[in-house]
Design a protein that fits this description.
Layout lengths: L10 E8 L1 E2 L4 E7 L6 E9 L5 E9 L2 E8 L2 E9 L7 E8 L6 E9 L8 E5 L4 E2 L2 E6 L3
Antiparallel strand pairs: 1-7, 1-12, 2-11, 3-6, 3-10, 4-5, 4-9, 6-7, 7-8, 8-9
Length: about 140
């Protein structure tokens, strides 16, 4: 998504809703601009089909790799990004919910090292093919 961030707002909400995916359980990653290193994140998730939860993290990786989840019945991303356009450290907090019996719900956050000003972002799947869906980007009024 190009021209998503500007000086108009400091903080943004990114939502991906609807669509389908060729396989279930794939993860959605978020990358800002062309920056492919320096992402740190942690997510706690509850698996619907298990009695235990999952904690996972990424340290100095290529994107926020668990920004959302893909299922054959839909995709879910709900992320708040703080300072993506400002020349400051960018942080994010997020949640996701899958709508399948073998799915999960999770929440977490992270940050991106450096002080680059970003205008664009990319959502990618860890595997398979994403089809359809709508990406919404909202700026928080100052």
């Amino acid at each position: 998504v190009t021209d998503a961030f500007s000086a108009t707002y400091d903080n943004y909400s990114i939502i991906l809703a609807g669509g389908t995916h060729s396989t279930g359980g794939e993860l959605i990653g978020l990358q800002l601009g062309a920056t492919a290193t320096g992402y740190y994140w942690a997510v706690a998730a509850g698996l619907y089909s298990a009695a235990t939860g999952v904690f996972t993290k990424g340290s100095n990786v290529s994107s926020w790799q668990r920004a959302g989840i893909c299922q054959t019945t839909g995709m879910s991303v709900d992320i708040d990004v703080q300072n993506p356009f400002n020349a400051a450290v960018t942080t994010m907090n997020q949640s996701y919910v899958s709508a399948e019996i073998a799915g999960a719900a999770g929440a977490g956050g992270g940050y991106l090292t450096g002080t680059t000003s970003y205008t664009a972002f990319t959502l990618t799947s860890s595997g398979g093919t994403m089809t359809g869906g709508t990406i919404y980007v909202y700026g928080y009024n100052k």
